[in-house]
C-alpha cells in the first residue's frame, strides 16, 4: 500500500498510529491542524501495557532516557500518613513518568518528515466505493483508501459519523503543573493523596522535574479564582503534607493547566466502512488511572495488526473496533469509578474509604492492575 491511509490528528494517538503503520511498512499521511508541534502539555504516566507496545515500536530506549521509571505507588492521607503502597515491579516493561512533549518527540522522531502535514484542519469526509476523500479547511481534498480519526475528544470524524454528543462531566476539575526538584521527593515513587473532595498527585519525571496534579469538586467550566490558579490551588492544599505546598509554590503560574474531568459512554460503533476512530476520538477516559494515552497507543498497535491480517481496509477496521471496544470500555469504567470514590466529600464515607482501601488495596490492586498492565495487544 502506498500512502493510502489518512490519519487526522497528530496527538499521541495519531503519532503512535503513524509510527506503528510506518514500522509495518504501510503507507499513510498524517494531517494535523496545528501548524507546528509545540512543547505543550504536562507530565504524564505511561504504564507497562503501553511501554510494551512502545518497545515493539523501537522507541523505549529513547523514552527511558527522558523519563523516570516508577517503582512504587503510595496512597496517602493529607497529613502524610500512608493508606497503602503498591510495588510496580514484576512487569516485562517499566512504568514511566515523563513529559508529554518528550513522548511526542520520541514517537515522531523515526517518521519521514513528508508523511506529516501540519496546518491542515479536517472539516469533513465523503466515502464511496473507492475509499474516502478527506476535506480540509484550507480547501485541500485528499483521496485515500481509509481514514483514521485521531482528532481527540471533540473529534470531527466522530461527529460526522455518529452525531454531536457532548462529553460527560464527572464533577471535578484537575490542575496540573511542573516544579523543579523538591525536598521530600523519593525518586521512582509516585503518590496520590486523598482528602475530602480533593486529591493531589506527585509524579517525579526525571531531569529534576516533578509533575503534580490537584483535583477539587466543582461545577463544569468553573472560571479561575480572581487571584489566579496558583493562589487557588495553594489555598486548597496549603495544610497538606510536605512537599505539596512547596511544589505548588515552586510552579510558574503561567504553566498551570486546568481541565474538567470528562469522558464519554462507550460507543456502539467506532466507524463505518473505511473510516474509523482511535484514541480520545473513540474513547476519552477520565485521567484517574493514567491510561488515556496508553489506550491510544494500544489502539495503534491493534489497528496495525488488523490491517496486516484482514483482506481489506473496511474488514480491518471492523476487526480492530471489535477487539478494542471491550478493553477500552473496561478501563474507562475503572477510571470513572476510582475518580468518583477518590472525590467523595462526606467525612464518614472518606474515613470508611480509607479504612477499607488500607485493608484491600494491595490485594485488589494486584488483580485490577494486572488486568490493565499485563495486557498484550
Ligand atoms: C488531566 C489529564 C491527565 C492525563 N494524564 C494521563 C496520563 O498520565 N497517562 C495517560 O496515558 N493519559 C493521560 N491523559 C489522557 C491523555 O492525555 C489522552 O488520552 C491522550 O492525549 C489522547 O491522545 P489523542 O491523540 O487521542 O488525542 P489528542 O491528544 O487530543 O490529540 C488530537 C490531535 O488532533 C488534532 N486535531 C483535532 N481536530 C483536528 C482536525 N479537525 N483536523 C486535524 N487535526 C485535528 C489536535 O490538534 C491534536 O493534535 C490525561 C488527560 C488529562 C486531561
Strand order of the largest sheet: 6-5-14-15-16-13-17
Looking at how many chains there are and whether they match, the oligomeric state comes to: single chain
Give me the CATH architecture, please: 3-Layer(bba) Sandwich
* Strand percentage: 25-35%
What is the topological layout?
Elements: E1 5-8, H1 12-23, E2 29-31, E3 43-46, H2 48-56, H3 60-65, E4 68-69, E5 72-76, E6 82-87, E7 96-99, H4 100-108, E8 116-117, E9 122-128, E10 131-136, E11 141-144, E12 146-149, H5 156-162, E13 168-180, E14 189-194, E15 198-204, E16 209-217, H6 229-237, H7 244-249, E17 257-263, E18 275-277, H8 292-309, H9 313-342, H10 347-373
Parallel strand pairs: 1-2, 1-12, 2-8, 5-14, 12-18
Antiparallel strand pairs: 3-7, 4-7, 5-6, 9-10, 10-11, 13-16, 13-17, 14-15, 15-16
This protein binds flavin-adenine dinucleotide.
Task: Describe the model.
- With 377 residues, this protein is of the alpha/beta class.
- It has a single domain, classed as FAD/NAD(P)-binding domain, CATH 3.50.50.
- Helices cover 35% and strands 25% of the residues.
- The chain is built from ten helices and 18 strands.
- Strands 6-5-14-15-16-13-17 form a seven-stranded mixed β-sheet, sandwiched between helices. Strands 8-2-1-12-18 form a five-stranded parallel β-sheet, with helices on both faces.
- β9 (122-128) and β10 form a beta hairpin.
- α1 (12-23) packs parallel to α4.
- The longest helix is centred in the last third of the chain and has 30 residues, at 313-342.
- It is globular and about 65 Å long.
- The two termini are 23 Å apart.
- The model has no long low-confidence stretch (mean pLDDT 94).
- Residues 8-14, 31-34, 44-45, 121-122, 150-152, 156, 174, 176, 259, 279-281, 287, 290-294, 296 line the site of flavin-adenine dinucleotide (FAD).
Amino acid at each position: 500500500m502506498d500512502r493510502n491511509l489518512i490519519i487526522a490528528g497528530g496527538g499521541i494517538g495519531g503519532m503512535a498510529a503513524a509510527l506503528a503503520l510506518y514500522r509495518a511498512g504501510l503507507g499513510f499521511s498524517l494531517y494535523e491542524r496545528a501548524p507546528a508541534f509545540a512543547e505543550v502539555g504536562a507530565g504524564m504516566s505511561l504504564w507497562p501495557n503501553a511501554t510494551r507496545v512502545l518497545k515493539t515500536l523501537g522507541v523505549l530506549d529513547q523514552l527511558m532516557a527522558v523519563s523516570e521509571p516508577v517503582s512504587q505507588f503510595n496512597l496517602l492521607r493529607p497529613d502524610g500518613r500512608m493508606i497503602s503502597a503498591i510495588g510496580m515491579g514484576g512487569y516485562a516493561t517499566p512504568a514511566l513518568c515523563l513529559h508529554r512533549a518528550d513522548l511526542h518527540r520520541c514517537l515522531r522522531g523515526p517518521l519521514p518528515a513528508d508523511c506529516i502535514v501540519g496546518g491542515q484542519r479536517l472539516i469533513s469526509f465523503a466515502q464511496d466505493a473507492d475509499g474516502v476523500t478527506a476535506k480540509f479547511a484550507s480547501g485541500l481534498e485528499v483521496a485515500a483508501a481509509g481514514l483514521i480519526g485521531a482528532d481527540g475528544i471533540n473529534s470531527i470524524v466522530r461527529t460526522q459519523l455518529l452525531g454531536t454528543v457532548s462529553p460527560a462531566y464527572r464533577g471535578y476539575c484537575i490542575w496540573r503543573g511542573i516544579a523543579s526538584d523538591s525536598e521530600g521527593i523519593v525518586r521512582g515513587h509516585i503518590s496520590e493523596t486523598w482528602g475530602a473532595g480533593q486529591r493531589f498527585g506527585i509524579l517525579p519525571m526525571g531531569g529534576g522535574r516533578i509533575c503534580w496534579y490537584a483535583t477539587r469538586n466543582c461545577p463544569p467550566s468553573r472560571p479561575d479564582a480572581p487571584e489566579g490558579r496558583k493562589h487557588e490551588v495553594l489555598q486548597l492544599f496549603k495544610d497538606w503534607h510536605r512537599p505539596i505546598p512547596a511544589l505548588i509554590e515552586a510552579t510558574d503560574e503561567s504553566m498551570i493547566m486546568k481541565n474538567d474531568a470528562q469522558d464519554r459512554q462507550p460507543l456502539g460503533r467506532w466507524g463505518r466502512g473505511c473510516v474509523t476512530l482511535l484514541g480520545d476520538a473513540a474513547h476519552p477516559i477520565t485521567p484517574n488511572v493514567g491510561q488515556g494515552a496508553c489506550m491510544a497507543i494500544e489502539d495503534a498497535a491493534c489497528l496495525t495488526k488488523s490491517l496486516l491480517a484482514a483482506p481489506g481496509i473496511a474488514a480491518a477496521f471492523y476487526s480492530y473496533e471489535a477487539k478494542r471496544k471491550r478493553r477500552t470500555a473496561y478501563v474507562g469504567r475503572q477510571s470513572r469509578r476510582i475518580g468518583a470514590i477518590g472525590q467523595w466529600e462526606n467525612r464518614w464515607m472518606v474515613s470508611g474509604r480509607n479504612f477499607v482501601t488500607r485493608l484491600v488495596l494491595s490485594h485488589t490492586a494486584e488483580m485490577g492492575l494486572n488486568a490493565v498492565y499485563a495486557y498484550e495487544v
